[in-house]
Design goal:
This protein is an alpha/beta fold and about 500 residues long. About 45% of the residues lie in helices and about 15% in strands.
Length: about 500
């Protein structure tokens, strides 16, 4: 591993609720090495002894640090997987990485599944074996191509390796466990049922080891199991016509409907009702300080109406305060990561006396530019120094200044490079830095997309850093780097908790 250490990876797997499940039947020659190598990369390993009769169970009982599920009669891999999943769920795990006990899968790939889970939370990750140079029987090669073809027919998903047992399952999204067959074809069923119920599937490359044909131990019965898989595929094709395909079409239409509804709601309430009312309110009489405060209160209540009370279909929103006694009335420089156009509303639900530094696009927006300009949000196109007098006036009137130090929305929701402007403003005016970290808006409305997706949204407010604390960190450049590292840790911790339920 190069990005993070093995120990950091093990801890992250635990924090994200990811365990490893190893089903085994009579793998006495390989089981110890497979399990002990798995423990190197994951601290939570569940082994299911599927009625072993060759001493495998006795070896497992001698290995410390694992959870052992055992029963006396061999029931098949499908049954063993189901027992492993149920045990993992009862122990509070959200995801399970499954790998075979015969030594063909490399536990060293476990961190690759972690990375895929972080990038695609809630997704079923399928290991795609590198089979170049591997000597395989014609039957095995045909069976894989046969399975891939019918899986595409049944789900519309084009996976190049549907027979691999090295996968990461989102346990809370598993469907059809009660209908699961008991043998190898159960793994195909799990993927088909998942796809039909809206779970995304992604492939990642994995290494594989195949011993010489004469040294391999396999419980696969070519004729009987191929017949079972053929019968299963016939049944799944029928179910795809009456359930799977219609379910996918309905999900697409619902997603489109949610987007159209949200867009219509925004246009009607913000463009046709809220903005005209504000225009009339501001045009009648002089714009006094009191009128300006009322404007901010109206924006605050509208934001709460949208984000908390009305909500966006398919989403949820909550705010979390690390300091329950946080006083937003005390002016500060708010620094927050930037994911989406929804970020402003996420922050505005907290307090009415917040103004933003914006880019030209927001300042000149045909939809809400009028509100932005009259709410005294300030553009940064001419640099910080050009707006310092206006910022000073706002701070003196009790407003906090919200800054997105990344300067632009993140493409993949990761924390980008921070600019120094927020820390410069805080130092000039002697203000605290108030860190806020957002999760979700970039997943609901990703950059360069226009169709809304389902995701929880959360804003977490962390403890203030006073100027005294900031000065102890170092100069402005050092403060900026330090804060970015904090945000990376904050955001990672949020992801680990929230993405166990996505």
């Amino acid at each position: 591993m190069t990005d993070i250490s093995i120990e950091e990876s093990r801890q992250t797997l635990h924090d994200r609720g990811i365990c490893v499940i190893v089903p085994t039947y009579n793998n006495v020659q390989t089981i110890r090495e497979v399990v002990e190598r798995s423990l190197v990369y994951c601290m939570d390993v569940i082994v299911v002894s599927d009625g072993c009769t060759d001493g495998t169970t006795e070896i497992l009982r001698s290995i410390d640090g694992i959870t052992l599920v055992e029963y006396p009669t061999n029931m098949g891999k499908g049954y063993a997987l189901k027992q492993g999943f149920q045990k993992a769920l009862s122990m509070g795990f959200a995801y399970a990485i499954t790998l075979d006990a015969d030594g063909q899968h490399y536990p060293e790939n476990i961190p690759d599944f972690l990375k895929a889970n972080q990038k695609y939370p809630g997704t079923l990750i399928v290991g795609q074996r590198n089979l170049e140079g591997v000597v395989r029987s014609k039957g095995s090669s045909f069976a894989n191509k046969f399975s891939n073809f019918w899986f595409f027919v049944q789900t519309g998903c084009n996976l190049k390796d549907t027979q691999t047992g090295y996968r990461l399952y989102p346990l809370k999204k598993l469907h059809g466990l009660s209908f699961l067959t008991s043998r190898y074809e159960a793994e195909l069923e799990l993927m088909v049922f998942a796809s039909w119920n809206g779970v995304k599937l992604k492939s990642i490359p994995i290494d594989v080891f195949y011993p010489k044909p004469e040294d391999r131990v396999s419980h696969f019965r070519p004729v009987a199991d191929f017949v079972r898989i053929s019968i299963l595929n016939t049944i799944l094709c029928v179910l795809a016509i009456v359930y799977g395909w219609p379910a996918n079409i309905i999900r697409f239409l619902l997603r489109l409907l949610r987007t159209v509804y949200s867009l219509a709601f925004f246009i009607i309430t913000a463009v046709f009702i809220f903005t005209p009312l504000l225009w009339v309110y501001l045009k009648i009489g002089k714009v006094t300080e009191k009128k300006s405060e009322n404007l901010h209160k109206m924006i605050y209540h509208y934001s709460r109406f949208v984000m908390i009370h009305h909500g966006i279909p398919g989403t949820s929103f909550k705010s979390v305060l690390e300091n329950k006694e946080e006083d937003f009335n005390k002016p500060s420089v708010i620094v927050c990561n930037h994911q989406s156009h929804l970020d402003l509303m996420c922050i505005l639900v907290l307090h009415p006396k917040i103004v933003f530094l914006t880019n030209d696009w927001v300042w000149n927006s045909p939809f809400y530019g009028f509100i932005i300009r009259n709410a005294e949000y300030l553009p940064v196109k001419d640099g910080i120094e050009a707006i310092m007098p206006q910022l000073k006036s706002l701070v003196d009137r009790g407003y906090s200044i919200a800054v997105f130090p990344e300067g632009t929305r993140s493409q993949d929701c990761s924390i980008g490079k921070f600019h120094q402007g927020a820390f410069y403003i805080a130092e000039k005016f002697g203000l605290d830095i108030l860190p806020m970290v957002i999760y979700g808006p970039g997943k609901v409305l990703p950059k360069h997309t226009y169709c809304l997706r389902k995701s929880p949204m959360q804003i977490s407010v962390y403890n203030r850093l006073t100027q005294s604390a900031l000065q102890q960190i170092g100069e402005i450049k050092t403060q900026t780097k330090n804060m970015r590292h904090r945000f990376i840790e904050y955001y990672s911790s949020m992801c680990n908790k929230i993405e166990q339920d996505v």
